[in-house]
From TrEMBL, chain A:
GO molecular function terms attached to this record: calcium ion binding; heme binding; oxidoreductase activity, acting on CH-OH group of donors; pyrroloquinoline quinone binding
Organism: Paraglaciecola chathamensis S18K6
Protein name: Alcohol dehydrogenase [cytochrome c]
InterPro entries associated with the record: ADHI (IPR034119), PQQ_b-propeller_rpt (IPR018391), PQQ_MeOH/EtOH_DH (IPR017512), PQQ_rpt_dom (IPR002372), Quinoprotein_ADH-like_sf (IPR011047), Quinoprotein_DH_CS (IPR001479)
SUPFAM superfamilies: Quinoprotein alcohol dehydrogenase-like (SSF50998)
Gene: adhA
Cofactor(s) this protein requires: Ca(2+); pyrroloquinoline quinone
UniProtKB/TrEMBL annotation, chain B:
Domain annotation Solute-binding protein family 3/N-terminal: ranges: 36-286
Keyword Oxidoreductase among record annotations: no
Family recorded in the similarity comment: Belongs to the bacterial solute-binding protein 3 family.
GO cellular component: cell envelope
Keyword Signal: yes
Gene3D superfamilies: Periplasmic binding protein-like II
Entries under SMART domains matching the protein: PBPb
UniProt name for this protein: Solute-binding protein family 3/N-terminal domain-containing protein
PANTHER family membership: ARGININE-BINDING EXTRACELLULAR PROTEIN ARTP (PTHR35936:SF17), MEMBRANE-BOUND LYTIC MUREIN TRANSGLYCOSYLASE F (PTHR35936)
Keyword annotations: Signal
Residues of the signal peptide: 1-25
Organism for this UniProt entry: Paraglaciecola chathamensis S18K6
Amino acid sequence: MNNKGIKTVLSLSVLISLALSPAVSANVTDKDILNDQATTGDVVSYGMGLRGQRYSPLAKINTDTVQEIRPVWAFSLGGEKQRGQESQPLIKDGVMYVTGSYSRVYAIDANTGDELWQYDARLPDGIMPCCDVINRGVALYGELVIFGTLDAKLVALNKDTGKVVWKKKVEDYKAGYSITAAPIIVKGKIITGVAGGEFGVVGNVRAYDAVNGQLVWERPTVEGHMGYIWKDGKKTENGISGGKPGQTWPGDLWKSGGAAPWLGGTYDPDVDLLFFGTGNPAPWNSHLRPGDNLFSSSRLAIDPDTGKIVWHFQSTPHDGWDFDGVNELISFDYQENGKTIKAAGSADRNGFFYVLNRENGDYIRGFPFADKITWASGLDKNGRPIFVDSNRPGDPSESKDGTQGTSVVSAPAFLGAKNWMPMAYSKDTELFYVPSNEWEMDIWNEPTAYKKGAAYLGAGFTIKPINEGYIGVLKAIDPKTGKEVWRYQNYAPLWGGVLATAGNLVFMGNPEGYLLAFDAKTGQIKYKFNTGSGIVGSPVTWEMNGEQYISVLSGWGGAVPLWGGDVAQRVKHFNQGGSVWTFKLPK
Amino acid sequence: MTLNNAFHFSLWAACALLFSVSSSARTYDDIIQTDFITVAVYRDFVPFSFQENGKDLGIDVEIAAQIAKQLGVTLKLKWATADESVEDDLRNNIWKGHFLDRTVADLMLRVPYDKKYRLKRDDIGELVNGQVHMFAPYHVESWQIIFDQANIESVPTIAVFQYHDIGVENDSIPQFYLMSAFRGRMRDRSKQFATIPLAIQAMQAKKVDAVMGMRSQISYYQSHLDTQRYLLAQNGFPNIGKQKWDIGMAVKAEYRQLGYVIGDIVEQMTKDGTIDEIFNRYRTVYEIPDFYAP
């Protein structure tokens, strides 16, 4: 194609995009993002506010009216490429921005469901994402729509045209890195976790200038690695994470320690801290790495200006069960003896719910939110698990050729009492709404395993439901007492996010395809609608032309159908899909 | 569809035409009729399959070329990115295709030939590898240590590595072995590297005194070093589990006929010394599988 041709194509597509744009729209500012939870006319951050509470003050759709809502449009993501749709839509000035599987982005007219533009990242041959080709959403800043790709790039698109403004390689996909999380924007910086499924990766959290994509700082999440900050384009040492290597890791295993912050993070402006969770340590078998293995399976509080770790809390020290500690830490305040407690809550994969002081990371209280926990008998006064030693998977050196070795049954399963799917917190009911799963696993050392033609000592596991009638349980939990106020049980495992509103409602989708609305106080189902494919995305709500809208992505997939066993039996007949459904009350 | 997408689509279509790897594995008759066979080999896996200055090289690449020649068809290679385990690699490259490109090959090399592995069952009792037929062992693999004689006089037993640093590949049996065997007495001396070539480079830079890996890979790298200084150790590996294992090939389970024809070709190549000669050319230690014992 000659230059002239390119020009024609570009200007034509700009014209078309302009013609299709519903209105000239304002740019997204830091202030818009900070106020996101309070402003009902837009959704400009993942989590519907940087604290990640997923709470909306909108109440037109409420327990009395929700029965009347109906779909106003549905948008198909199209193509043969379906698989899991885990995205949360963002909405600004009547335009919805969603991501689809296989690193695709769409801008949709929020009034009509018409497509304004679509961007397809060209993925290289030979990428090997671990857990389906999903993406969790975009970030908006200025005139940019920013998202991460399966081949570990950050891409910034013009919000009106969908054209690439800049593109940054975050890490080398060949080394096993990829991005599935939605980035967040804090103080003009894109904050993203750098993660990969492959062994040998060292996790880190990075900040990029949201305007031009220049690196600002990076903070490794494994003890012993140097952090950096860029000043006037100059890379400067900024302190070793944890002070020095080798304190909680044997040998030089810290060099490849894992702890990948693959789910992204939240931010609280009151204490001016970022909160990122970290994945499990590597290698998988805990007998190879005696010690706490910091900062694996932890929550880190990071200074957004410098990238320094201000405090950390490790939910599973010396993890041996693949209990990633990536789950979101949601800031919330509560009153106790007339005092406001600046707290933060997190429901860990390991089955315990933690309430921390978000100013300093102090443990306030913790309690099981999973019905069955076998690996720990409880938490001590500092929130550290009291291990059940007999429930730790076996030492590989004790397995003999051809024998499986002993198998242990452990609950929760490695997919977690709660996985990535975000919970919600309602300031009206002061309850957390936690999408959880009741499953357990057998784990054994597997000597008859091979990797790339080499004999290899793998781990065998079976993941299985604990109960006949259900795996998924949506739980309303009081963070002050640990009491479960109500529950909803679901046959298939839950894998989608939750939304709470001032209309005394809690919204959530299930793999069976239903968008469900519950009474936030009682758990009574007030509305259900089948979207045609399983829901593993996170619903949002906003207001447009005086009416309240609800949107959710439908499209079954994610990690659950990739794992076999009894759980697969429950989900194998679910059909794939890929669409955005939008609802409102009739006029 | 915007013009942007139209442009992407046409690019995609052009690519699809260029790399017309078949989207499903095929019968022997289809292969003969279409005059080509697609063989999956691992990407960047020295000395078995790799690319250098645009040329396809390696022991497995040459064996694949010989098989194609004997069948009287041309060879197409499918470069496979290794997944977490060989089960995944067989699914991605032989019977189902990876969900990103959905193409498969007719034949895959460097697959274990192991009865226990063939009969392995998953957690609901199904054969893990029931979708493929594994056959034609062509090589015996085992573990090997290479050491720098400038720093270690000799390696009579593995106990030496309580005192000398040794490089291993991440997430491999040598790593598990050195980290856990004998109650972890070699743990602090085990140094982790992303790949064996990086560990070898570290040995040349005197950062480690030895490297442990697969015998074929280690012997290949040794032959490119000063063989008077960097020696192959003769020690045993007590309690390592599998001391030796056979390497063979795989086709999709339905295409046994293809398997039988290629099995005969490989048997001939083993017996007439063709395979030995290919290993020799790459200066890599070869051991003939028991399968062909007289």
